[in-house]
Amino acid sequence: MRLVEIKEGKARVFIPDPKEYEKNGKFDPSWAPVFYNPRMTFNRDISVIAVSVISPKSIIDALAASGIRGIRYYLESYSPIEEIIFNDKSKVAVDLIRKNIEVNEVKVAKITNRDANSLLYEVITDYVDIDPFGSPSPFILSSVNAVKNGGHVAYTATDLAPLEGSSKKSCKRKYDVNNSKLSFSKEVGIRVLLSKIVREAAILEKAVEPIFAFYNDYYYRVIIRVTRGAKRADESIEKLGYFYECEKCGFSGSSKDPIEKCPRCGNKVKISGPVWLGKINDDSFVHKMIDYLQNFSYIKNFEAVSILLHKILQENKYPPGYYNLEFVASKYKINVPAREKIIECLGDASQTHFSSKGIKTNKSFDEILECMKTLSNKV
Ligand SMILES: C[S@@+](CC[C@H](N)C(=O)[O-])C[C@H]1O[C@@H](n2cnc3c(N)ncnc32)[C@H](O)[C@@H]1O
Ligand SMILES: [Zn+2]
């Protein structure tokens, strides 16, 4: 295997030379014997800041591939880390991790060549990172099991088709959620994932509190805090519910139990659930990330991370779900006015990072419609 050296954040790592695995001049990271995807740099940049705020003493990078993630946590996290377990079931990956750890002088590293699930049932740690191919579902129970009371788990999910309701059967299989394709499915997806995490943790009498969650490019990333207690687990489950959307009048919302008919026009609605209806971001955590950010001016995505964190803070004030302006406008055969103008007209509203066509608001659907109709007459 020919290797090339790349730099990301403060790490220098060796990865398989992409040129060796090109097919007809194209390259996909999954074709190389050890996985490294530069498109995930944003995910790692922002995770380094999150880990700095969490300040865990021990970390398990359970699906480590080249080791880039754990190495960056060691080199860049603000508070010292006492132990990082780098694990991958692939022997080739583990050999490469060994080399990369040496090059980056990661003094606190342990390397294991195990199935992540069996490893996670044998260890206990402050923070687990689950960064799989596709769905993190197979690793939820074991990762929640592996963290101490008050510990954290971070999940990446790239299987957007089931999560966003395009592959309903796959969503039922992997997340045990009856999903539909809704006009605001970008946000539904992250709440489907959180719903599964909450229900899996409850099996272990553990409660889940999402502290940081976002969508970017082709994946979701969520970080949760886990605490022990059957009663707390019950309280987490209490925050599950259903989204509905009416194809006829464009109205949508959430409810504790599934509903069949649109509360506005009586038409049959599409539903998705059970989904997590609690907060997906913790304000004080995001504020701390913004405070820490200035120390990370060297990261590739400094500007984009800053923009995302500020957007998240704005939208976190509003209830779950957003209105897709194009979807609503299509129901009333009106032009879509500029989003900023609608937000200004409503007063109590914000954009959402989930979609450039979405708004979140505490105002009623009729007030949104009124603003849209008035503004579209001026277009
Ligand atoms: C998407 S890659 C990880 C990428 C890496 N975290 C990064 O940031 O570049 C997923 C890795 O999980 C490993 N893997 C898949 N299933 C596994 C399992 N059951 N146990 C341990 N490792 C596994 C694969 O060998 C692969 O290296
Ligand atoms: Zn309706």
Automatic annotation (TrEMBL):
It comes from the Archaea. It catalyses: guanosine(26) in tRNA + 2 S-adenosyl-L-methionine = N(2)-dimethylguanosine(26) in tRNA + 2 S-adenosyl-L-homocysteine + 2 H(+). Zn(2+) binds at residues 246, 249, 262, 265. Its EC number is 2.1.1.216. Keywords: Metal-binding, Methyltransferase, RNA-binding, S-adenosyl-L-methionine, Transferase, tRNA processing, tRNA-binding, Zinc. GO terms for molecular function: metal ion binding; tRNA (guanine(26)-N2)-dimethyltransferase activity; tRNA binding. S-adenosyl-L-methionine binds at residues 44, 69, 88, 115-116. It is an enzyme of class 2 (transferase). One of its GO terms (biological process) is tRNA N2-guanine methylation. InterPro entries: SAM-dependent_MTases_sf, Trm1, TRM1_arc_bac, tRNA_met_Trm1_C. Dimethylates a single guanine residue at position 26 of a number of tRNAs using S-adenosyl-L-methionine as donor of the methyl groups. Belongs to the class I-like SAM-binding methyltransferase superfamily. Trm1 family. PANTHER family: N 2 ,N 2 -DIMETHYLGUANOSINE TRNA METHYLTRANSFERASE, TRNA (GUANINE(26)-N(2))-DIMETHYLTRANSFERASE. This is tRNA (guanine(26)-N(2))-dimethyltransferase. The lineage of its organism: Archaea, Thermoproteota, Thermoprotei, Sulfolobales, Sulfolobaceae.
